[in-house]
Structures are given as C-alpha cells and as structure tokens.
Amino acid sequence: MPNSRYPLLFSPVKVRNTVFRNRIMATPTSLSWADAYTGAPVDLTLFYYEDKARGGAASVTLSETTISRRHGASRGVGHYIVHDEVYGDPGPQLSKITEALRRHGAVPSVQIHHAGDVTFPTLIGGDDPWGPNEYTREDGVHVQAMTEDMMFAVAGDFANAALAAKNIGFGMVMIHGAHGWLLGQFQSGATNWRQDKYGGSIENRARFPLMVCKAIREKVGNDFLVEYRVSGDEHLKNGITREEAAEFAVIIQDYVDIIHVSAGSYYTARQYTFPGSYQPRDTNTHLAEAVKKKVRIPVATVGAHMDPVIMERILEEGKADFIAIGRGFVADPELPHKIEDDRLDDWRPCIRCNNCLGRKYDGLNNCDVNPLAGAELWTVRTPGPLTSRKVLVVGGGPGGMQAAITAAERGHEVILAEKTNSLGGTLKFAALDEHKDDLNSLTQYLIRQTGKHAIDVRLNTEVTVQFIEEIKPYAVICAAGAEPIIPSFKGVDLLPCIHATTVYTSVDMVKGANVVVIGGGLVGCEVSIFLGGKGKKVTLIEMQDKLAPDANRIHKDSMMEALNNLSDAITPLVNTKCLEITGDGVLTERDGKKELITADTVVYAVGMKPRSDLAMQLQTAKGVKRYIAIGDCQKATRVKDAIHGGYYAAIDII
Q1: Which CATH architecture has domain 13-362?
Q2: Is-contact 292 320, C-beta < 8 A?
Q3: Are 446 and 639 in contact (CB under 8 A)?
C-alpha cells in the first residue's frame, strides 16, 4: 500500500508497459568511472549505482554516456555504450549494472549525449568539434557548423546508442538535451544563430532535436521508454525560456515518454544546473509546471528536492509526475526507503556544496558528507572488530561526531568528550546564516545520530593526558579541530577586530556601518555576503588576483552571483595588501598605491591553525593502543576531510 503520509510519492505509475514503483527518480550524477580503453563502467561504478536501486529509487540513470567515438561527440567523461571494432564492447559490463538495478526493483536507465561545440578535439583524433554554428572558441578551437548530412549521422548515432541500451537490458534512455550540450545548443537562441531551416524560430531550432527523437523511436520501437532532459530556463541572454521549453516539449512529445525539466547551461550558468546553497530548494518546479500544463505525457522535476512534504505537494498540485533527485542520492542512497519508513531523522542531508561535481576535474569527485559514495567497492574488505573496544573521541565537531557514530555502530564502547557546552564544533555558526541551512541540517543530523547511538557524551570536558590515562581507552581518535589565525597587523587593537566565524555567533560585535573583511577566500566571501545581507557596507580585500581560489568552480559561480547581487553593499578588491589598521580604517596597498579604506569594524578570514600541539601532546598518554588524529587538528581543511577522517579512523579500530 502507498505510504499514508506521502501517498502520491510512493504510489506506482505505469508508463507504456513499464511500472515505476514510486515517483522518486535517481538522476545521472558524476561519481562514475569507466575503463579508459573500452569505455565500459568499472565495478566501482556498478556498486555506486546499485546502492541507489537498493535504497528504493524508482529508476536509476547512469551518467553521461557518449553516443559515438566519431562525429565530434566526446567530452572526456569516458563512458561509451556502442560496440567499437577497435575499442571493444562495453555491453557485457553494462549488463552487470542493468541486472543489479533490476534485481533491486529499479528501472535501469542511461543518459546518452553528444557534447557538440564544447567537445575536446584531443578526444576525437584532433578533429574540429561539431555544433550549430561555425566559429572559433575562446580557446582557439575551430567549430564546424553541422550540415544536414552531419545531423543525420549524429541522429543515427543517438538511435544506435539507444538500441544498444535496449539490447543490453536498460529499460529507458535519457536523451540529454539540456545544459548546453549539442541538442540544447540547437534549441537555444543563445547558441544557435543559423539562418537556415535549423535556426531562427522555436520550430526551426527544434528541428534537429526532433530528428534525433524520431530516429530513436524508429530504432527502439514502442515498447521502450525514452526520457528527454531539457533546460526549462537557461538563465542566459537569448537562451531558452520557460515558455520556449514548454513549446519545445509539445513539439517532441509524440516521440518521447517523459520530459525531464532541469535548468541552466553547464559552461555558462551551471549554478542553475546544480543549485547550491545560494539558490532555493525545489528550484525548477515552476519550470516543470509550465511544461506539465502543455503536454499530455509525464513530467519530472529536478533541482534540490529535499523535503518530502514539498515533494508530495508538487505531485498533489499536478506540477509534475516524478521527483528527480541527484546529489541527494549521493549523500544518502537510501533516502526513498528512509522517507517511506518515516526515518527522516536518519536521512543524511546533502549540503549542496557541489564538491561531488565541482572537484571532479581535480580527480576528487566524492561526497563531503557520505564517506562511502564512490568508495563502496574499496570498503568491502573492511574487517569487523575482533571485540568491543573502549574508544575515546576528543572533540564534538563533525569529524568527532562521525567517528563516535561509526565506532558505536561497530559495537565499541564510545566516550565523546567536547570542551564546550554543545556539539557542532566549527559548524555551529551554520545555524545563524540563512545561506547555510543545508550545512546546519548536516550538523543537526550528526547531533541526532550521536544521541541515537550508545555514546557517552561528556560536554564541558577538556581532555588532558591525565584524563586519558584515567579512562584507559584502547583507542583515542583526536578531532580537536583548529583555531583562527590572528593577523599580526599593526593597529589590530585600534578597531574591533574579529574572526569571520565569530561574526555569525556575535554579530553585535560588528560595530558601525562600514566593515573591511581581510581575506577573500571562501570564508571571507561568504561572511561578506552575510554582512552585506545585514545592511553593512563591506570592502573585501584579497592579496591574490582572484577571489575564492579554494572554492570549487560550481559553488564559486553560485557564490559570485550572490556577491554580484549585493554589489551595492560589497566592494571586492583583489591584488590588494593590508598594511596596517588605523583608528579610521585599514591602510592598503594596490598596484603600488596606498589607500585608507574607512572601517568601523575589521573582520579577518586569513585561515585556521591546526591544534597539532594538543594532538601531539595527547598522543603521549600511556596505555593507549591506537591513537589517530583526524581533521583540522592535522591540517585545517574542509568538512569532507573531517567526516571522512572520522569514519575511516573508526573502521580501522578492530
């Protein structure tokens, strides 16, 4: 029976001859890896996607899979689906994934795509990429304008890829027509300025994507599902609008079964494709609704869906037929089952940091909050504990809480000692920043999980060597954190001078209207946005030539947009050095010229200093068999390092 609280969300729906067990789709996400030669997914990818199906998703879609090694198609993702005479057949390995997804009750799907004019020439034998128009890219690469023969060739590639998917065992393909790839490039007036029958009007710009849809349908027949992903709004000048997206959906609806409504364009407006903490949740529902009003086929909405009450309401009000979730499944692949079982306290929230996507190009595509995402295979050989051990965790921040939770789950006797009167560590400030709701959700999740496990939490407890020797633990996990680096500028005592994180907890310490923030990294930018939103006039000073060099590219896009939206309140200055603080403000130097910037308060965000001395001191305690220092007390970094460090430290106690 459908869930009584969310009856529509957990009601089945039949599309053609395929039954979806509920309305929650797991969308394509980037934590997937292919064999460098064949393009077949490696076993690590199989484990990653299988967990989503086991967790209750109605369908699970593999991420961007290139339709051909020819015809200017590849972008470097590395996944292929069609047999190649030179590179071999990825089909047998893909069939392992389809079988895994089906045995857990999910409809297996694969996203097929062509990168178009952003294709990397090095991946297509040095040839020019294909696109709607002939032009030279900013990187000097020449793009060929597609002829009609080229279009028919690419449509054939799409059709062959879809047929291969069907034969391999997939129950559906998703045509990637969104986010500025080839089909979206034709659809959008921002990227299609052709003067022939494939450019100009909406109908003309839809002509090639429609050709692709027809070719696929003709090749796979009527017993196979085709989903089309469209950007409901590209958020670009002359780009696809809500009204155009709805009209386009009407044009293609006879040849597809589901319209999947996303937003943005990867290379120019990706903060709307992957909405972060500066964008609202459920951000594309209005776009899906506009399409839903026009078409007679089911519609899926995607875009930071995190509240099942709102998901149910979307379905109830007829704004969409499916709720599609991407990063939420990365953070917690069991989210459908947890919602259905009313275990919302156990739902690990996505914090929308976009590190799973934004750091992909650095080879670091994993999840900040879920240590197992992308590491499912590597942890299979983790041994169980030989016996229950007494474990002392020092520090109640995110790393310490994760370590305590994991150790308790493995049957150890856990004591968690925190020197302050509450858990949360450096994340406590998140409860006070409207743009940090997601991070605060993570903090509260960890606090709840700490309370639900058999953990002896001792607040207001300063851990010393004597304390450890009195408790006599088998293992100590030190998550003592870091402390702010206090700048040594001349005159720091002449004005109120406070650390960025203190601003959130003690905003009344920020005196006057004019604030200078020293340090334009991620923390400095975010505290500037916070203060600008509070009505302060902020000057943000950064020594380097750009702001937030430490931010991943997707979160940075979102954050910079928020900074620009507060341009009346925030003035960023790069290549600017702080010389000293005076009674009137901050004396700076830029391009050899000195300037005094008026300030009533100075906020500094110049980094954190690991509490490594304490960590080393505690390691001298006698009788401890295992001592592991994690997180910021080793090196002040990110939430991910604390949580992953806590998890792996705990599973190493056997």
Answers
A1: Alpha-Beta Barrel (3.20)
A2: yes
A3: no
Task: Determine how many CB atoms are found less than 10 A away from the CB of residue 577.
Answer: 14
Spatial separation of the C-alpha atoms in residues 585 and 512, rounded to whole Å: 12
Say whether domain 390-484+609-651 belongs to CATH 3.40.50.1240. no
pLDDT tens digit sequence for 389-429: 999 999 999 999 999 999 999 999 999 999 999 999 989 98
Which residues in the chain are classed under CATH 3.20.20.70?
13-362
Tell me: the pLDDT tens digits for 342-392? 999 999 999 999 888 866 666 667 899 999 998 888 888 899 999 999 999
Cβ atoms of 495 and 600 within 8 Å: the answer is yes
Asked whether 323 and 305 are in contact (CB, 8 A), the reply is yes
Q: Where are the domain boundaries for CATH 3.40.50.720 in the chain?
A: 390-484+609-651
Question: Residues spanned by CATH 3.50.50.60 within the chain?
Answer: 497-606
CB distance 275 to 246 below 8 Å: no
Taking the alpha carbons at both ends of the chain, their separation in whole angstroms is 42
φ and ψ at residue 55, rounded to 5 degrees: -80, -5
The tokens for 13 are 């729906």
Query: Model pTM?
Result: 0.94
CB 41 within 8 A of CB 50: no
Who's near 652: CB < 8 A, 6+ residues apart? 626, 628
pLDDT surpasses 90 at 26: yes
Task: Using alpha carbons, list the distances in angstroms from residue 396 to 350, 371, 481, 506, 565.
Answer: 20, 18, 9, 21, 36
- According to DSSP, residue 436 is labeled G
- The predicted-structure confidence for 565-609, as pLDDT tens digits, reads as follows 999 999 999 999 999 999 999 999 999 999 999 999 999 998 888
- Mean of per-residue pLDDT scores for the chain: 94
- Can you name the CATH fold of 497-606? FAD/NAD(P)-binding domain (3.50.50)
479 in Cβ contact with 630 (< 8 Å): yes
Cβ-proximal residues to 125 (8 Å cutoff; 6+ apart), any chain: none
